[in-house]
Amino acid sequence: MKLKDYIEEIPDFPVKGILFKDISPLLANFEAMNYVKTSFIDIIKSYNVDYIAGIDARGFLFSTLLADALGVGSFMIRKEGKLPGKVMTKEYNLEYGTSKMSIKKNINLKNKNTILVDDLLATGGTLKCAEDLINITGGNVLFSLAVIELTNLNGYKNLNSKVYSLVKYDD
Ligand code: AMP
């Protein structure tokens, strides 16, 4: 399966200088999505997993799919201000500036094994923040999954745990 055929590259979106990798064609194609799902499940299947955590927002497109296939629960790691009730929030660095993400406090992650999933790994700031939020609550991150990796940014170096990606761009 040539996943790059299902990823559209859009220059200068959402801001000038960013070559946006749009996964809309991937989502629209059953075989391509099924390939992503089965590839991720192959990586996960030998692990004892309690939760799949989806990263706001495109990570959600994969997290519930994987959780359902594995027979486990999932939860959301969301941009600040999106989750109701008591939350834990952490700031992280973007290429320009900072942002914040939150998880709900009422999910008991203590000694639970979580796998993180997002559509794309760039600098790794987002996944690192997600790792930190889970670790602060006493949870364990097994590893992260990303459909796409921008390898020239070396995002994996910023993470505490391993990251697996299915399609790599070095431009
Ligand atoms: P980073 O924290 O730098 O690893 O950025 C990863 C997050 O930003 C992911 O949630 C992606 O959805 C988004 N992102 C960063 N760069 C791109 C890009 N070139 N195309 C699409 N999404 C991107």
Write the layout of secondary structure elements.
Layout: E1 8-11, E2 19-22, H1 24-27, H2 30-44, E3 51-55, H3 60-70, E4 73-79, E5 87-93, E6 98-104, E7 113-121, H4 125-136, E8 140-150, E9 163-169
Parallel strand pairs: 3-4, 3-7, 7-8, 8-9
Antiparallel strand pairs: 1-2, 4-6, 5-6
Bound molecules: adenosine monophosphate.
The site of adenosine monophosphate has 16 residues, from strand 2, strand 7 and helix 4.
Provide structural commentary.
The chain is α/β, with parallel strands linked by helices and 171 residues long. It has a single domain, classed as Rossmann fold (3-Layer(aba) Sandwich). The chain contains 4 helices and 9 strands; from the N terminus they run ββααβαββββαββ. The chain has helices spanning 24-27, 30-44, 60-70, 125-136; strands at residues 8-11, 19-22, 51-55, 73-79, 87-93, 98-104, 113-121, 140-150, 163-169. The strands form 2 sheets. The protein has a 7-stranded mixed beta sheet, sandwiched between helices. Strands 1-2 form a two-stranded antiparallel sheet. α4 (125-136) links the parallel β7 (113-121) and β8 (140-150). The longest helix has 15 residues, at 30-44. It is globular and about 40 Å long. The two termini are 21 Å apart. 32% of the residues are buried. The mean pLDDT is 97. Adenosine monophosphate binds next to β2, β7 and α4.
Short description:
The protein is α/β, with parallel strands linked by helices and 171 residues long.
